[in-house]
Amino acid sequence: MNGSRAEAAHHQLVADVFARACASRGVLEHVTGRWGTLALAALAEGPFRFNALRRKVDGVSEKMLAQTLQALERDGFVHREAEPTIPPRVEYSLTALGAEVAGRLRELIELVEGRVQEVEAARRAYDEAKSAVAR
């Protein structure tokens, strides 16, 4: 392949989340999964040690939080800093990319939180309509 063809081929390798084999799907899953979203949003407030983050993200198990943080670290959203003390002191913080993603997630979270009454009203109306049809 000559230089211009190689450049053209490179430019065609654009991420497309709707394509089955696109790597962005896995990344999006890590970011938008329940625990990924909550961990990133919490870390937007500043660095946390593991147990403090677990308390902040109420309901997450130790195992799920560890897996979530590992995936987010691997994807480049979270930085893990381990100090060689006994016991080791480990702190998690956002990378620049993680901070950008967390900022957008925070906007979505604030939108949902601000409109939750509308969602609840829509759910009630839906359930009532489905209940009426079932009778």
From TrEMBL:
Alphabetical keyword list: DNA-binding, Transcription, Transcription regulation
Highest taxon in the source lineage: Bacteria
Organism from which the protein derives: Amycolatopsis endophytica
InterPro entries per record: HTH_HxlR, WH-like_DNA-bd_sf, WH_DNA-bd_sf
Keyword Hydrolase: no
Domain HTH hxlR-type: 22-120
Molecular-function GO term, any one: DNA binding
Protein name: DNA-binding HxlR family transcriptional regulator
Entry-linked PANTHER family: HTH-TYPE TRANSCRIPTIONAL REGULATOR YODB, TRANSCRIPTIONAL REGULATOR, MARR FAMILY
